[in-house]
Amino acid sequence: MRWLLNRRLSVSYTSAFCLLFALGLLIVFLPLIAQDLGLSSAQTGMLFASFALSAILVMLLPIGRISDRWGRQKPIVLGLAIIVGALALMPVFNAAFALYALMFVYGIGFGILFPAMAALIGDELPAHARGIGAGIFTAVFSLGATVGTVSVGALTALQKSVGLHPFQSAAILIALGIAWAIIALAPRKT
Q: 117: domain range?
């Protein structure tokens, strides 16, 4: 329980949940949007490939190590903010090229965020507890994807009632994650 309730570790867990919640929604809704645009299954797959490619590139290039230079908070907030921007804009642009570009941008956010939130676990836990922290992280990661895909019906109903696209709902949730990262990782006043 001590590691689950640790304030700084909770930022890693919250970020992981938000990240995979959004990815769960993308898995469900992005193919539907692509179908409306007349994209083939292969082209839809390339949307996900553009996300994966940019995430891999960011993590492999020196930018993937910015959390070692900047600390953990700034890359976590930056990565989440980039993801919020990409998600919020996806329903706005009704063109295949824009979707490819936004998925690429989403991947950049992922690539900046993931190393920082994973490194935060190593920073906050003693060596003997890192397995527990990684296990909680993985469980929350999986929970985010599950809740994201399961909440599709509720978010679709929300879209019909107030016009808020599920991607924009996810952006709001992630914005709350950003607020928590700023609060929880802020230096404590003595």
A: 7-183
58: domain CATH number is 1.20.1250.20
The DSSP string of 54-109 is HHHHHHHSGGGGHHHHH-SHHHHHHHHHHHHHHHHHTTT--SHHHHHHHHHHHHHH
Q: What does pTM read for this prediction?
A: 0.87
Residue-wise over 132-159: b if at least 16 C-beta within 10 A, else e? ebeebbeebbebbbeebbebeeebeebb
pLDDT digits (tens, 9 = 90+) for 117-143: 888 888 888 788 788 888 888 888 888
Q: How many domains does the structure of the chain reveal?
A: 1
